[in-house]
Design brief:
The protein has 458 residues and is mainly alpha-helical. 57% of the residues lie in helices and 4% in strands. The longest helix is centred in the last third of the chain and has 35 residues. It is globular, with a radius of gyration of 28 Å.
Length: 458
């Protein structure tokens, strides 16, 4: 027995030195690493150093490797786990879930699990899901929607089923019942802090026509300042401690505002919604639960760079923009759609009638852009890519399309009710302009253009 153990030890040494060569360690470093790395992980390296050499290299330069946390420590499983299978004498799982990460990172795992990120797969059943999975198709859903949002991952004989797998969605529902996916941001197997703190990491999902946060940030004052000082800030990104006002000061990025610590009292968190006071995603924005406390936390970050009076004044502008969007466009538009549905002038199936696409664009694309632009101090996104397009969509598409539907399908009672609805809508001060502006205002406009361009307004 003693001879067998000695032989095994010799074999593991050979594996470790071979792995060390792959990851660029000298023999002294490899000997030190061997004392930390478990025999099970060394056995894993024996095969994977040749099968997946870059994977082993990524792990080899990670803090996990430095701390003796290897393949087996993350992938080990109990034989009764749904996703457990036997692999060369070891019981392991392909999927590493927040429950697994939480064994060493309990605070971070708890914050992630309680965050909106971990619930991202709940979009299944939403209008977004109808578009991706039904209107477009299942293959698109797997490679599009689910790769950001996540999905339920079924297993067979302990292995994930192809189609749903592979999946890197941040709200993934794992076979062990946990929700979330740490590796959506902390890429395997290097788990680089520098990588995860870069704005591109958030932009991987937060981009595009309906939630262009990365595009909005890039050309905001924050984004421009960050890029101007990126080389200086990058020198700090791989530090374990990363505190605004202490470790860096030049400019904020996504992590700074939504997750990072500051000398002004903000504590680092993995709950990305812990500082958000409005929900800017739905057709009509609402304050989040406990929003005053959440705003107070965000203000702590802001006040590392801005005076309190400035921060308060910004939030005053932001709140007014959200209320403007809600009251002038979102609530009336929502009432129009309810009017048509309640009178059965459009059927319950989503997206099979033109007006449903029009309404979706109004709140889901243009309305979100306006609200997100305002939240991140990007005036062009707030106006031209935002409320300007909301207004055009509302006055010249949604209402005319509703007019046509009522005229073609409505009963006399429907038409009377629609006429009354419109009269009440256009009698409100914010919509009165549409029925004709006062001559005095029109004269001012004409005089301005005549003076500036030598011609009347077109």
């Amino acid at each position: 027995m003693k001879g067998k153990l000695s032989k095994l030890r010799t074999g593991l040494l050979a594996v470790t030195f071979a792995a060390a060569a792959v990851i660029g360690l000298n023999t002294t470093d490899a000997s030190a690493a061997l004392r930390k790395i478990s025999p099970q992980t060394q056995a894993c390296l024996g095969c994977h150093k040749s099968m997946n050499p870059a994977l082993v290299q990524q792990w080899g330069v990670s803090r996990h490797a430095e701390s003796g946390v290897g393949c087996y420590e993350c992938h080990m499983a109990n034989k009764n786990d749904k996703d457990a299978f036997q692999h060369f004498g070891f019981t392991i799982s392909t999927i590493v879930s927040p429950l697994d990460c939480g064994k060493c990172h309990p605070k971070e795992a708890k914050e992630v699990t309680e965050s909106h990120h971990a619930k991202a797969a709940q979009f299944v059943g939403s209008l977004d899901n109808v578009l991706g999975r039904i209107v477009e198709g299942e293959a698109l859903f797997n490679l599009g929607c689910a790769q950001c949002h996540g999905r339920v991952i079924p297993v067979k004989n302990g292995l994930p089923i192809m189609g749903p797998w592979p999946n890197e969605g941040i709200g993934r529902v794992n076979p062990d019942g946990s929700k979330g996916n740490c590796a959506a941001c902390h890429f395997r197997h290097s788990f680089s802090l520098k990588q995860v703190r870069k704005p591109d990491m958030c932009g991987k999902c937060h981009q595009g026509p309906d939630h262009p946060q990365i595009e909005i940030w890039e050309l905001s004052k924050h984004g421009i300042a960050y890029k101007s000082h990126e080389s200086e800030i990058e020198q700090t990104l791989d530090r374990a401690k990363w505190v605004l006002g202490e470790d860096y000061y030049q400019a904020p990025n996504c992590v700074t505002c939504h997750m990072g610590a500051s000398v002004t009292g903000a504590k680092a968190t993995h709950d990305v919604g812990a500082r958000l006071s409005w929900t800017l995603r739905p057709p009509i924005s609402k304050h989040k639960p406990n929003w005053e406390a959440k705003r107070a936390e965000m203000k702590k970050v802001c006040q590392a760079c801005h005076q309190k009076v400035w921060v308060d004044a910004f939030y005053y502008q932001f709140d007014n923009l959200v209320k403007l969007y809600n009251e002038k466009f979102a609530i009336p538009a929502n009432k129009i759609m309810k009017f048509l549905k309640s009178r059965k002038l459009i059927d319950p199936t989503p997206f099979n009638e033109r007006i449903e696409w029009t309404y979706f664009y109004l709140w889901h694309h243009e309305g979100r852009r306006a609200r997100h632009g305002a939240s991140m101090m990007a005036p062009d996104w707030t106006h031209w890519h935002g409320l300007y397009e909301v207004a055009e969509r509302f006055y010249f598409e949604l209402i005319p399309e509703a007019d046509k539907i009522v005229a073609e399908k409505g009963s006399r009672a429907d038409k009377r009710a629609w006429k009354k609805f419109k009269e009440e809508l256009f009698s409100r001060p914010e919509h009165k302009w549409f029925k004709g502006m006062p001559k005095s205002e029109l004269r001012k406009i004409a005089e301005f253009y005549m003076k500036r361009y030598g011609q009347t307004a077109q």
